[in-house]
Specification:
690 residues, alpha/beta, seven-stranded parallel beta sheet, 27 helices, 13% strand
Length: 690
């Protein structure tokens, strides 16, 4: 990814100075009002129907960006929130030579903005004389450095790695060399499958070698991308990269203006995911795979190649070999003692394992420092420094994890990850990200707009403000304009087995399989089955793939296929069954009959045993609060509202929402889930009377 030493701020001075504040306020807000007014520019130029909710949101955004103030907007499905922030945002960005950064959580929304919404904005600007000066706005997509080809590193790899004997790697290098002169983006995804990861590691831009001294936009795809970003009026990014960059120090000194770029302003869509994304990226993670990869890029004993096979000495290679042995022992010992048979375990006592990696890693970092000091070739010096910095970061993170350095403000755990659960990871996460978000977002002297269909508890946004450090922000709640009572049927199972019946095998062998199979057959279109466990996804997928073979395609979140691809194939099928958990509760946008039914298998309560959830619950208990009421229930309600929002995506959509959790009807807290439904007309059913 773009790192601390990579200055990706705009490279050109704005063509003109900022307009006086008073003029900015009046002009931007007034133009926005004309666009979204009844019979306004949107109607006259694009024949779009006026939506009062959209107009209210656009007005609030226009005021927020003009006044560099924070704003939280909950906008129900169908409000049209993308245009409501893009149009006033673009007007402000172009008029004032500032950059608008738009961040999303999911790829589909990012693609919608790039391929649809921004085209609408440009068309509107082109058709209205008063807006034509904004029609030339420039866009750029910000992705991590490792996704780009670097021309300098490619040339070096061709020069140094012609001795590669592995035919697949020879083929990968040849494909990259042939592709490089033709690519417009230089992005790894253009190459498709079949490229050796090791070869890509040697040619991608994630290195200090790829800089403005060694590369230029005419030949280097990454430097070309940087130039586009520098000139862009709007930069699109995802939450993961945004918070990675912020955590790496991209926002600069405290008190400076701007979040990623000087004087930028930011819109975070799908903002209900912000607390979780920040938790992930403001902690640390060190994996056995990541350390092994870094060490073998320096020298791979089995293949006798790597950076130090050319520039190092024999004792350097011996030092790496020893470190590889200690690394394998260290992570194997973690797996044996802490992850057999479970996949995840919280760490509670400092020095929970002997840190045999401390000394060999320190010796290696010291040796790289010596090589850095004596090296005279500029590019080799930069590569040595890259290795040294990365290994130093890994070394520090391992030492902190073994010592539990940031307890009680953070929680630490070990976990087995990957498709086959073979990668051992040391992880930490802060228990409270509000202070970090306040410093990195809301104290940057610029406007930060957060928006989603689910930010509130149905009344206010106080909990979300507490989570995100956004106290004092203006807030706006605009309900969906859709006629849910007319277009959505709601059914709740009154006799669904309670969750504790799971151990008896009730769910897989009987009730749930029978009911879901029956429900799928009741609609001609597609069905989305939202689960709360991967075990259910697997069991349902196996059963329904057999049941509906040759009749309906079944797509399931089983690994090996991306979420975006699964959703795209489900959408194209028209009558498929899509089964997923967690991430499938949000961001799935399939309008029309291809998604005619959403089945919620269980209310989406987070697993209380996850280390972060467990530690936060303990903290709330220590403060005299009820973890279920303060955390578990509110989080489940947000997830629930997101899940049921997958069904009706446009005005003429219709379909069935079926909830297979009788706790909606039997538990006191069930009333809150009932209140979160789009309307109150609910049909109860049992398996006997389906």
């Amino acid at each position: 990814m773009i790192g601390l030493n990579d200055n990706f701020h705009p490279q050109k001075t704005p063509a003109r100075a900022l307009l006086p504040a008073a003029e900015i306020d009046v002009a931007g807000v007034e133009l926005t009002a004309k666009i979204f007014a009844q019979n306004g520019f949107l109607h006259s130029a694009l024949a779009l129907q006026n939506r009062p909710q959209q107009a209210a949101m656009a007005d609030a955004v226009a005021h927020a960006v003009a006044g560099d103030s924070p704003l939280l907007v909950e906008a129900g499905t169908g409000v049209g929130k993308s245009l409501a922030y893009l149009l006033p945002g673009l007007i402000h960005a172009v008029r004032n030579a500032r950059q608008l950064v738009v961040s999303t959580h999911t790829i589909p929304l990012q693609e919608q903005i790039q391929n649809s919404d921004l085209k609408l904005c440009r068309t509107l600007f082109e058709k209205i004389p008063a807006l034509q000066k904004f029609a030339g706005f420039k866009t750029a997509l910000l992705v991590g450095k490792a996704n780009y080809l670097c021309a300098t590193r490619l040339a070096k790899a061709i020069e140094q790695h012609t001795e590669l004997i592995d035919s697949d790697e020879q083929a990968s290098l040849r494909r990259i060399r042939e592709w490089a002169p033709t690519t417009q983006t230089g992005l790894r995804e253009e190459l498709g499958a079949g490229i050796s990861p090791e070869v890509w590691d040697w040619v991608n831009a994630d290195s200090s070698v790829c800089n403005t001294r060694n590369c230029n936009p005419a030949t280097c795809p990454y430097q070309r991308a940087r130039a586009r970003i520098a000139e862009a009026n709007i930069v699109i990014v995802n939450h993961s990269l945004l918070f990675s960059l912020i955590a790496a120090g991209a926002s600069g000194k405290a008190g400076a203006r701007g979040v990623l770029f000087p004087s930028d302003f930011v819109v975070l869509d799908e903002a209900h995911r912000i607390p979780a994304c920040a938790t992930d990226h403001f902690g640390s993670a060190v994996s056995a795979y990541a350390l092994d990869k870094q060490l073998k890029m320096l020298w791979n004993p089995k293949r006798n190649r790597g950076f130090l096979s050319v520039y190092g000495k024999q004792h350097d290679q011996r030092l790496i070999a020893e470190t590889l042995i200690e690394s394998e022992f260290f992570f194997n010992e973690i797996e044996r003692r802490f992850l057999d048979p479970q996949k995840i375990r919280r760490l509670r006592e400092p020095n929970w394992i002997e840190n045999r990696l401390n000394l060999p890693l320190q010796k290696l970092i010291t040796r790289l420092t010596e090589l850095f000091a004596t090296e005279t070739a500029k590019q080799r010096k930069e590569e040595i420094d890259d290795f040294r910095r990365r290994l130093a970061a890994i070394h520090g993170a391992i030492n902190d994890a073994v010592a539990l350095a940031d307890v009680p403000d953070s929680v630490y755990w070990v976990e087995r990850t990957g498709v086959r659960a073979k990668n051992i990871v040391l992880q930490s996460a802060p228990l409270d990200v509000s202070g970090i978000l306040r410093e990195k977002l809301f104290e940057r002297k610029t406007s930060v707009v957060m928006t989603s269909a689910t930010l509130s508890n149905g009344v206010d946004m106080e909990r979300f403000k507490t989570q995100t450090g956004s106290a004092g922000s203006d807030e706006l709640i605009e309900l969906s304009p859709f006629d849910y009572k007319k277009n959505m049927q709601i059914f709740v199972a009154a006799d669904a087995p309670a969750p504790d019946a799971r151990n008896a095998g009730v769910r897989e062998s009987g009730w749930f399989l029978d009911v879901i199979e029956f429900l799928i057959q009741r609609v001609a279109g597609g069905t989305l089955v939202l689960c709360t466990s991967h075990r259910d996804v697997k069991n349902f997928a196996e059963q329904f793939s057999a049941t509906f073979a040759g009749k309906r395609p079944v797509f399931a979140q089983l690994g090996g296929t991306s979420r975006s691809d699964l959703v795209a194939r489900f959408k194209a099928a028209g009558n498929g069954v899509l089964i997923g958990t967690d991430s499938f509760w949000t961001g799935v946008d399939v309008p029309g009959p291809a998604l005619s039914q959403v089945i919620v298998v269980r209310l989406p309560f987070a697993a209380p045993s996850h280390p972060v959830t467990e530690a936060r619950a303990e903290k709330l208990t220590q403060e005299g609060k009820n973890p279920f009421a303060e955390m578990t229930l509110p989080d489940a309600l947000i997830q629930f509202r997101q899940g049921i929002g997958r069904l009706i995506r446009k005005t003429d959509d219709s379909g069935r929402l079926v909830i297979l959790d009788s706790r909606m009807l039997t538990k006191t807290y069930g009333r809150q889930f009932v209140a979160a439904l789009p309307h109150e007309k609910i049909t109860r059913f049992t398996r006997a009377n389906m």
